[in-house]
Amino acid sequence: MRPFIARVFILLTLFPLIAFASDRGKALNPDISANFLGLAQHGTSYSDDRTVVPHNGLTLQEAELQFSADVDPYLRAVALLAFAQESGSADYKVDPEEVYAETIALPVVTLKAGKFKMALGRHNLLHAHAFPFIDAPIIHRRLLGNEGLNESGVSAAALIPVSWFSEFTLQALTLQNDALFNHYTSGEIGGLAHWKNLWDLNDSLTMEFGLSGVTGKNQFGRKASVLGSDLTFKWRPVEGGKYHALVWQSEYLLGQRPGLTDAVTSESTQKLGGFATWLQVQFAQRWWVQARYEYVGLPHSPPLAVATKESVLLGFFPSEFSGLRLQYDWLQDRARTRINDHAIAFQYNISIGAHPAHAY
Amino acid sequence: MKYLALVLLAGLPLPAFAKINVVTSIPDLAALTREVGGGEVEVESIARGSQDPHFIEAKPSYMLKVSKADLLVLVGLDLEVGWMPSLIQGARNPKVRSGEKGYLELGPELDPLDVPKGKVTRAEGDVHPNGNPHFWLDPLRMGRAAEILAKRLGELDPAHASDFQKRAKDFSEKMKNKVAAWKKRIDKTGVKKVVTYHKTLTYFFDRFGLENPAILEPKPGIPPTSGHIIEVIQLMKQQKIPLILVENYFDASVTKKIIGEVPGSRSAEVAVAVGGSESVKMIDDLYEQLVRAVEGK
User: Fold this and answer.
1) pTM, rounded to two decimals
2) Which end of chain A has fewer beta carbons closer than 10 Å to its terminal beta carbon, N or C?
3) Parallel, antiparallel, or unpaired for β B243-247 and B193-196?
């Protein structure tokens, strides 16, 4: 039996034990929810080989199972298992995408330990089903990999006593991220700092500004780092807010990867920066239209080419628990062999189970 | 050192001169807390009266408010399930976590209506498994809520416990007397059945003997479809339903077509929370406005 099928079989055999427990037991069961993303896509640069990610045609992009509950009077825990296609194979693998415990009884500060999405900017904290577009920005994928910066670690996030919302987070993390560190010596840890600020400009409009940075030793034994900044404006009118909203978000990342070189010329490819900026407009209760512009190569080491990408998206959300999105991308990469790619993707997003508490 | 001091002080009772800092999920509960708490409380609501309380965004600035609260008062019954857990976790205030003295959910204590029987499924829309949460539209349940709230405020500030109880009792009595008068006025209109946009006014109708045989949403949370509106029009004609009340955070434009198709019918946009319109400043104003809407004033 293939490993994936075996894992699904074990989960399915465990589910009835949870679902049909006694009423008393049920009351203490964790909140359980499942989410999955289906995708139909075609891109001029996508492969027709089903073992390559991304490939043309229909695919289950990702499925997630989430369990969350208070552990005791001091802690709550979240376990989120993600099922996604393994690159180089048509099989799916199970990944403990986020498994952590965090404090609930401490004033001012939240301590967290486990494996979780690191607080580098805003987009890196999102799960695939909550991405504003079907894919993550290019600069995030180039610097942090397809799964983002999602490591084992510990975290302390404290509220700063000022008149606006200001939160400072410090995190220690393992250095397994393939894209940035790829450093597997146990005992080596990296550090991350994030400062998040949010102001209510009026009852309908907020502005959020954040600065973050992560550093740690990479596979060449040298310090790699990513610095980031993010700026978000969100407008949802106090009256009529069910039908209209606007979000404008921008995020910039600058990566320094000493030791990385171009495969052909052996020149250094240490430096790479880029940004993504996008606008999301809700024009009816269940409809959104969105546009995104990305620029990668600001700055960049000479062997790395500048790339730009433009995307537009139309989203329809029949209810809080389902969504349909159609996205078109135009990618231009000014590499030695100039690339001019087009892609179109249709995604459905389904959630069942416990009602999620939405992040802002 | 400042934070260490906060940790050490967290378990101590409030000093005699300090006001109780109360944060409520909806403005009606803030108004009720002012009625009961008088000058001994500072109150702030997260939601505004013009917002649908199911869909408030969990702004970090709201976390700041909750972080400073001595008491968090909620409707419960899953009304705030999409946003309040994020605010509580982000607030880092152990005083207002579920199970603590500073956390009060009123809905489950007030005999909820519309509790689903049998299997609960989202094929029925965004249902509330523990019952309809809109209890604040029943004046008598708000009277009982005042008494529960007074008890909790008294636990937080024992020196003023009797003041809280007296104000709650006065409020409860006032509601009982007013309900009798409002009931007479509604009975006089001859209106027996009302269509609404969402099942928001269930408790108000239950208290005043009105029926709500049709909802403009085909299922809770799903906007009206043309096919469903045709069914509503037919039902209004068959059952001679004279009135549509639209909660004023919904788009009322669909009612124009219905009114045109159903002779003798009328519609009104109504506030369903304190602060939902300029004239609704207090809890009494909310019910008075609804009674006047039924009267056609």
Assistant:
1) 0.91
2) N
3) parallel
